[in-house]
Amino acid sequence: MLHLKFAVGFELLGYTHSMWIHYPSLLLDFWKFAFMKAYAFSLSFFLFCLLLAGCGGDGIPRAAVQGAVTYDGEPVESGVIMFIPETVAPVALKITDGQYDSDSDVNDRRGAVIGHCSVQIFANRPTGKIYTDVMTGEKMEETKQFVPTKYNERTDLTAEVEAGQQTIDFHLEK
């Protein structure tokens, strides 16, 4: 069966059955030809996939958001704020020193989805206790979530994100 495949392939290139037996270099020519066709097809397929995927953005209208987050009148030193639209995946932004900004966020610079979003805010504080990490053996400082669940898991917070850059502040109470 293998013999027949080579013969058919050579005949497609204009070689006869007996030529490839007497001229082994023709076999190398055949494989070069076959490889180049496979390479060209693979490259074309890859470029086609890139074309389908697009070169930028996810096609979802978004807007830059920034603002302040306080809890009981004090800035939230470190945490995460999530803008959760009704139809697509949420955007999580880092809170640093009571501020967040989608344009300079280290994790996600896409901005929040335009429209009505549910908002969740998470923040941890050190408890003063030290524990040993079971994976690394390092001493670690224990932290605990201090923002009430009504601002995260069972959130009451919402935001109307509009086109353009905007400031949306959140002042959380105990």
Short description:
27% of the residues lie in helices and 37% in strands. By secondary structure, it is of the alpha+beta class.
Provide the domain count: 2
Q: Termini distance?
A: 79 Å
The main β sheet shows up as: 5 strands, mixed
Mean pLDDT: 80
What level of helicity do the residues show? 25-40%
- Quote the beta fraction: 35-45%
What would the CATH topology of the largest domain be? Immunoglobulin-like
Quaternary state reads single chain
Q: What is the gyration radius calculated from CA atoms?
A: 30 Å
Number of helices: 3
CATH architecture label of the largest domain: Sandwich
- Detail the poorly predicted runs: 1-7
Order of helices and strands: HHHEEEEEEEEEEEE
| Number of E strands | 12
Assign an overall shape: flat
CATH class of the largest domain: Mainly Beta
Describe the structure.
This protein is flat. Helices cover 27% and strands 37% of the residues. With 174 residues, it is α+β, with helices and mostly antiparallel strands. The strands form 3 sheets. Strands 2, 3, 6, 11 and 12 form a 5-stranded mixed β-sheet that branches. The chain has helices at residues 2-12, 17-22, 24-53, and strands at 62-63, 65-71, 74-75, 78-85, 91-96, 99-101, 112-113, 115-132, 139-145, 158-161, 166-167, 170-172. It folds into 2 domains: 2-53; 62-172, Immunoglobulin-like (Sandwich).
